[in-house]
């Protein structure tokens, strides 16, 4: 009797595990398809409305700032809230409003009235994109238990969505994208939710133990903040490498589609490489192979594509590491890595602009670290958070100042926004509203005044 009972219990547990695995695969598949559609919709919408726009550079810059550099803040918020399905609903509503706004702009052709709709549309697209990405990244990491293969599948489809949305941009395609997003978003609410108990997910840690390669238990080691900063630097370097592989090459429609497909395949394959080879063998293969391909990329297009494939293979690896480092705060981890993509992209695409940004960013970081030290702050996490928040606020503010002639009123208004954002950021790390306000005010005021002093001295040398 006991033997029969044991067999029945074992059979039920096995069936439950299989159903759990099926639910996870369905959820990740829907999320990955949504990623393809959201990125495709955003680029398609921008292409259709900025074709005759004189402010095209500023528009795309504003969109990228909102879509990428806000993700650490949306990720921090998503980690805090309980009912995360509202985030997806909010993203869908914002994207829908963006498409409606874009449609209204066509009623006025290229007139000034039509351009009025451009900025609301860009803002809605950027924030909607930010909300969706962090929601999807968080959900995938939590329900798959940081399965490195699942992470790769989710992040992979966006690259191909950008290629399709940009090349095939049309109003019909835009509406198909939007309708599909609405349908799939509804499906995510009807799919059986995978249980967070038990062990249906297979993490990179579990996979690589089979080969004797332990990925360091990143979430348990001391100095997690330093590791996270290092991971962000790796992501920025990968972003630079991805752009450097294709810089200076004429990109026709077929080649753009090929690049999108190769990028997608690389991000998707990275997790399976880790499962098959173990973490460190796979990472060495990816890095060394990419370096070899970069040296020989001009010999044949196949070598270039192979290198791009290997560069993209590292994406699920860095995301897995970040999730392990910030266990329980996967939204923040996803957002920080998304923000880290922008510096690498800028460095590869516009070196003079990057030089300008660095000449403002680095002194600001050093000044504000000095202010914190003078205020007798000694916590390592606060110092590291100061570096991160300066990258997230100083870079977009200087990009906007560089491209928009808004005068001193615009600069001061931007400084006020930065003060508020940094106060909230410091509050997260200090848990003291008074201390956060003092840190934010003094750091920003002193760095701004020192910068203004040097600017005035520079103007005097020109007289």
What do these coordinates show?
- The structure is a single chain.
- The protein has 463 residues and is mostly helical.
- The protein has helices at residues 2-50, 56-69, 71-80, 85-105, 112-115, 118-143, 148-167, 171-190, 204-209, 224-246, 253-277, 279-295, 301-313, 315-325, 330-349, 351-374, 380-403, 407-430, 433-462.
- The protein is globular and about 60 Å long.
- The N and C termini lie far apart (99 Å).
The largest sheet, given as strand count, sense and whether it forms a barrel, is:
none
Q: Look at the helices and sheets and give the structural class.
A: mainly alpha
User: Quaternary status of these chains?
Assistant: single chain
Stretches with pLDDT under 50, minimum 5 residues:
6-11, 197-222
Shape category: globular
User: What is the rounded Rg?
Assistant: 23 Å
Q: Give me the strand/helix succession.
A: HHHHHHHHHHHHHHHHHHH
Question: How many β-strand runs?
Answer: 0
What are the SSEs and their pairings?
Blueprint: H1 2-50, H2 56-69, H3 71-80, H4 85-105, H5 112-115, H6 118-143, H7 148-167, H8 171-190, H9 204-209, H10 224-246, H11 253-277, H12 279-295, H13 301-313, H14 315-325, H15 330-349, H16 351-374, H17 380-403, H18 407-430, H19 433-462
């Amino acid at each position: 009797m006991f033997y029969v009972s044991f067999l029945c219990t074992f059979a039920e547990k096995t069936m439950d595990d299989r159903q759990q695995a099926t639910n996870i695969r369905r959820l990740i598949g829907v999320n990955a398809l949504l990623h393809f559609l959201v990125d495709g919709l955003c680029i398609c919408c921008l292409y259709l409305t900025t074709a005759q726009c004189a402010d095209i550079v500023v528009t795309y810059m504003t969109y990228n700032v909102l879509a990428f550099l806000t993700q650490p803040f949306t990720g921090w918020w998503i980690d805090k809230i309980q009912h995360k399905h509202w985030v997806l609903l909010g993203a869908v509503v914002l994207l829908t409003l963006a498409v409606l706004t874009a449609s209204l702009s066509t009623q006025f052709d290229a007139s000034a009235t039509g351009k009025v709709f451009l900025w609301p549309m860009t803002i809605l697209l950027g924030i909607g994109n930010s909300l969706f990405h962090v929601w999807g990244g968080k959900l995938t990491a939590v329900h798959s238990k940081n399965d490195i293969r699942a992470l790769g599948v989710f992040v992979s489809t966006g690259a191909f969505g950008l290629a399709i949305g940009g090349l095939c941009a049309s109003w019909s395609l835009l509406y198909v994208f939007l309708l599909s997003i609405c349908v799939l978003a509804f499906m995510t609410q009807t799919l059986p939710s995978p249980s967070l108990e038990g062990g249906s997910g297979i993490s990179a840690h579990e996979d690589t133990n089979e080969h004797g390669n332990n990925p360091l238990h990143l979430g348990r080691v001391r100095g997690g903040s330093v590791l996270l900063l290092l991971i962000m630097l790796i992501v920025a370097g990968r972003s630079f490498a991805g752009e450097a592989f294709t810089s200076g090459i004429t990109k026709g429609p077929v080649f753009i589609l090929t690049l999108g497909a190769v990028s997608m395949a690389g991000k998707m394959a990275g997790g399976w490489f880790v499962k098959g080879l173990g973490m460190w063998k796979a990472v060495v293969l990816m890095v060394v192979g990419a370096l070899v391909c970069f040296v020989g990329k001009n010999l044949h297009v196949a070598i270039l594509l192979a290198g791009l494939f290997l560069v993209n293979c590292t994406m699920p690896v860095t995301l897995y590491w970040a999730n392990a480092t910030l266990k329980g705060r996967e939204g923040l981890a996803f957002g920080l890595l998304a923000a880290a993509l922008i510096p690498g992209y800028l460095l590869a695409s516009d070196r003079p602009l990057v030089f300008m940004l660095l000449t403002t960013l680095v002194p600001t970081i050093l000044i504000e670290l000095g202010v914190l030290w003078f205020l007798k702050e000694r916590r390592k996490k606060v110092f590291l958070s100061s570096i991160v928040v300066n990258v997230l606020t100083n870079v977009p503010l200087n990009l906007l100042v560089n491209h928009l002639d808004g005068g001193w009123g615009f600069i001061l208004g931007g400084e006020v926004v930065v003060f508020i954002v940094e106060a909230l950021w410091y509050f997260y790390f200090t848990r003291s509203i008074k201390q956060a306000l003092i840190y934010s005010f003094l750091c920003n005021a002193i760095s701004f005044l020192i910068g203004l002093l040097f600017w005035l001295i520079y103007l005097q040398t020109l007289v």
